Amino acid sequence: MTAAGGIRARNRAALEAEILRIGQQHLATYGAAGLSLRAVARDLEMASSAVYRYVASRDELLTRLIVAAYDALGDHVDAALATVPRRSSPARRFRIIAAATREWALANPHEYALIYGSPVPGYHAPAERTGPAGTRVQARLVVLLPELSGGRRETARDRRALGHLPETIQAELHLSSGGDQLIDAGTLRRGMTAWALVTGTVSAEVFEQFGADTIPDWPAFFDAAVDDALALVTNP
Amino acid sequence: MTAAGGIRARNRAALEAEILRIGQQHLATYGAAGLSLRAVARDLEMASSAVYRYVASRDELLTRLIVAAYDALGDHVDAALATVPRRSSPARRFRIIAAATREWALANPHEYALIYGSPVPGYHAPAERTGPAGTRVQARLVVLLPELSGGRRETARDRRALGHLPETIQAELHLSSGGDQLIDAGTLRRGMTAWALVTGTVSAEVFEQFGADTIPDWPAFFDAAVDDALALVTNP
DNA sequence: TGGAATGCGAGAGCGGTGCTCTCATTTTCA
DNA sequence: TGAAAATGAGAGCACCGCTCTCGCATTCCA
Known about the structure:
globular, homodimer, about 240 residues
């Protein structure tokens, strides 16, 4: 018995997109562990074996969902940044990026878990596929750092910790924004630590690492943490 | 065909312990997603149905593994603290707790993922079972905070964020250590943020959230982050 | 001490999963 | 138009969580 109608008519790209869409839906509903290719196939009214024409494996679908999640977060952050004047203060932009990240994480906890939680099964998301989408938010942050940083105090330890990373970042910065600002190891190191503070706080809230209902006012807690993160970068 | 010999002889407690042990082994090897009751049963040379006499479900085993992971981390931190004089400075003790947490996380990434990563499947670890073991490290930290904190500056936002939490903690502190030190909302809030910074940094390393091989010297990066976390608490 | 109650392990079985293989059909294109 | 490629379905394999029943061993207790 052949499936209803029109399935065959949809072209490959549309079908791949629909598989991703249904996958996102299942991910949001059941979480990564509950994601099943067979269930996706059922929603598509296709035989489970047929979806393997479009997705090589479950891990392949998971990888696509990770990329999609990175992109969704990136879009959300960019949209938030777009609501604010182009040359608003870097501190304000930092706060907006942090707040948008928290918002998106709370609205999409399973997607957030996919990218900022533990790597799902035993499998390792291939960096060459998640890379470009995965660094969008960090890229938005890095461009703020030079202006944000009060002074370029850097320690020998900062330089040791990051090695040639500042120069690498510097080159990319130069290419993308054309800015000629200098990123020293201290600023970059503190910026990365500040971001770890933000994501650590978001994870604490989303994953209830302090226990459920321990923090009565998470928005206030988060704002305070973001202020601390900012102070970390601006007052070395 | 009945299993080899002596299985029946082991009493219930020993068998439960062995199930946990094999579970830990599988967890460390294959990760939480690869944990299978049937595979544990095979290692025990038992029928899969028989292990259900000792473990109600896979989630039940997972919950026990979470508790065990919390305890192992707590033991590791306590052991590290024990190598240092009883009245060493709170800053030194903070550093030891942070370093021990990182050590343990790197040595046991899957266990770390279980407790500081994303909540595993769709299931929610019952707080009444993970609670006592889950707060051991935090308890070690909290007792350091009053002495660590330079001044008790607290903002209205700190008080709003934490509500009655300081009093609750205070009462528990008084019971356990008998100390009469006061924890204000500012100190506690900054202490929790500092801990989020530490776990955020550990997660960044263990889960490769900055990308693989981005940070050339993680020990140096981590030490710098811990110094920032300490500064956050001591210099409000 | 002997019978009853309980504990325990094994096996079969249900519905689910990922994935592969084959086969028939459709579409594409030279 | 006819060969080649793409597509979908179905059967099937091995694995999973979990349940049920059955037989045997142990324990308890009258």
